[in-house]
């Protein structure tokens, strides 16, 4: 893919590329200067890295290979958002480096020796830019649309509520549940009517009414209130990630010679939407996997979301409710190594996509399941998004800020960190599952991740203990000798441009970084659904 960074068009220097579109990125991304020179910290000094790696079942000895170029002040928040972002990217980078060493032949009968695993050095600048990738996206110079007018916080009779109405069907269901007719009104007038209606109702009453109508609305809760809620109590009992072997099947063979990327010849079926799941599969595509995203023809998708998270992938439409669609999917499954789903637990079971069913038909498969609220508890089948999990779990309450009238109003994280962080964790779990299979610990594998578990981890200060201390983890501080500098954050070193079927794209570069690893995707996204339903 073209390597013409925005820094070059603004007077900086473009980064060179090797012939196959990958180059060995080092920790000096962006070149020398005040913005590139920062303190380097080891994994033991970085909150959350060890816990994330332990949750993935990784060898603790490999943590000595991890370091980070620290840039304080990025992703500012009351909660340790930068720490979460850094930890998930570092863990994913280490999982990629580990598998790379294994597939390159640096391990014979057991796990690769720490000295053989490429060193990992992530950069806070790359991490922060990637965690806000949807904001940096430009398509022929156009910015993304952002949240829809009816997706926001609202005053209610007894507190606050957040709605999500970015998709037309969710918007229609919200208005129907509130009894607000469009009546040809402009968006501002419609929002005023919704505000008037919500001001007369209790937040939890609206939450249930909108849910019953198939819409999305969640009451703002404190962390303590969420802990008392049945779903919050369930989340507090669950680990950050859950990995289980479904059988004792041998690992699926990987055809072809090992290439430059650790997932070369690995085929991934991507049945995910919005941000978290697509971030996971976008990461697997970066590492060489043949990722085929499959969408139902009747489900809408936002063009900006596809442009942002479609890097490195192909995209096809498939109606799984038809016999022809099921037959086509079965052909894909018989050559797949990984299947990742991002729908509510059980929503795809009727199509034969329950994990156990997939393992029966394709022994040795790795199945990744991602959801908003997890697989247990009364909300397990509810729709959810990052903004709504922030609202329910207590994050919005923790991040509250003075409102226009002087009273505190709920706030949001500086990035959709639950989405991005969970996506990198899920990608890392897939990498580790493939590694474990090739180390003789075989079997079809099921990996589950949920936004609500990542929220629990963040609220607990990235603690290894369920529930945590609710105290933000301290950020590492560079030396106080003035050497790191205090230059404002400039994302341009971690942005790139390329031509694509969607137009000229400006996009955030991937944050994964290990010696010899890829620094960019091998291809830009194509048009949504334009690719054949087939493997390369």
TrEMBL record:
<feature type="compositionally biased region" description="Low complexity">
    <location>
        <begin position="1"/>
        <end position="19"/>
    </location>
</feature>
<dbReference type="InterPro" id="IPR003673">
    <property type="entry name" value="CoA-Trfase_fam_III"/>
</dbReference>
<feature type="region of interest" description="Disordered">
    <location>
        <begin position="1"/>
        <end position="35"/>
    </location>
</feature>
<dbReference type="Pfam" id="PF02515">
    <property type="entry name" value="CoA_transf_3"/>
</dbReference>
<dbReference type="InterPro" id="IPR044855">
    <property type="entry name" value="CoA-Trfase_III_dom3_sf"/>
</dbReference>
<feature type="region of interest" description="Disordered">
    <location>
        <begin position="515"/>
        <end position="536"/>
    </location>
</feature>
<dbReference type="InterPro" id="IPR023606">
    <property type="entry name" value="CoA-Trfase_III_dom_1_sf"/>
</dbReference>
<feature type="region of interest" description="Disordered">
    <location>
        <begin position="462"/>
        <end position="496"/>
    </location>
</feature>
<protein>
    <submittedName>
        <fullName>L-carnitine dehydratase</fullName>
    </submittedName>
</protein>
<dbReference type="InterPro" id="IPR050509">
    <property type="entry name" value="CoA-transferase_III"/>
</dbReference>
């Amino acid at each position: 893919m073209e390597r013409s960074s925005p820094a070059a068009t603004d007077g900086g220097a473009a980064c060179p590329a090797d012939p196959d579109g990958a180059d060995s990125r080092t920790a000096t991304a962006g070149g020398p200067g005040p913005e590139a020179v920062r303190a380097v910290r080891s994994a033991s000094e970085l909150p959350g890295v060890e816990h994330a790696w332990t949750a993935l079942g990784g060898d603790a000895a490999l943590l000595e290979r991890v370091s980070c170029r620290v840039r304080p002040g990025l992703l500012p928040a009351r909660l340790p958002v930068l720490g979460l972002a850094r930890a998930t990217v570092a863990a994913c980078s280490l999982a990629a480096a580990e598998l790379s060493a294994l597939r390159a032949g640096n391990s014979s009968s057991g796990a690769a020796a720490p000295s053989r695993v490429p060193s990992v050095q992530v950069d806070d600048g790359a991490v922060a830019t990637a965690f806000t990738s949807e904001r940096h996206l430009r398509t022929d110079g156009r910015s993304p649309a952002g949240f829809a007018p009816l997706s926001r916080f609202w005053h209610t009779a007894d507190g606050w509520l957040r709605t999500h109405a970015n998709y037309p069907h969710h918007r229609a269901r919200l208005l129907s549940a509130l009894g607000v007719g469009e009546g040809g009104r402009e968006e501002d007038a419609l929002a005023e009517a919704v505000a008037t209606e919500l001001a007369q109702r209790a937040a939890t009453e609206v939450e249930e009414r909108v849910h019953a109508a198939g819409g999305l609305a969640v009451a703002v809760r404190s962390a303590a209130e969420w802990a008392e809620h049945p779903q919050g109590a369930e989340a507090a009992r669950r680990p950050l990630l859950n990995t289980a072997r479904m059988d004792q099947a041998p690992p699926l063979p990987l055809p072809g010679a090992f290439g430059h990327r650790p997932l070369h010849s690995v085929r991934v079926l991507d049945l995910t939407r919005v941000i978290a799941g697509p971030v996971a599969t976008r990461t697997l595509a970066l590492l060489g996997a043949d990722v085929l995203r499959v969408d139902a023809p009747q489900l809408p998708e936002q063009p900006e979301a596809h442009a942002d998270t479609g890097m490195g992938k192909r995209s096809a439409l498939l109606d799984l409710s038809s016999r022809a669609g099921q037959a086509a999917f079965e052909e894909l499954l018989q050559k797949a190594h990984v299947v990742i789903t991002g729908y509510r637990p059980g929503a795809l079971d009727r199509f034969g996509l329950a994990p156990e069913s997939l393992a029966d038909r394709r022994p040795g498969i790795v199945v990744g399941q991602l959801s908003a609220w997890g697989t247990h508890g009364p909300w397990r089948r509810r729709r959810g998004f990052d903004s709504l999990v922030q609202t329910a779990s207590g994050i919005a309450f923790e991040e509250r800020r003075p409102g226009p009238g002087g009273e505190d109003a709920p706030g949001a994280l500086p990035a959709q960190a639950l989405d991005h962080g969970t996506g990198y964790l899920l990608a890392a779990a897939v990498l580790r599952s493939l590694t474990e299979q090739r180390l003789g610990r075989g079997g079809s594998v099921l990996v589950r991740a949920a936004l609500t578990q990542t929220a629990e981890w963040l609220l607990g200060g990235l603690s290894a203990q369920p529930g945590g201390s609710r105290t933000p983890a301290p950020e590492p501080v560079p030396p106080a000798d003035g050497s790191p500098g205090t230059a404002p954050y400039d994302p341009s070193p971690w942005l790139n441009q390329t031509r694509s079927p969607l137009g000229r794209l400006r996009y955030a570069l991937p944050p994964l970084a290990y010696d010899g690893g890829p620094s960019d995707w091998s291809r830009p996204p194509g048009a949504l659904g334009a690719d054949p339903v087939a493997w390369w």
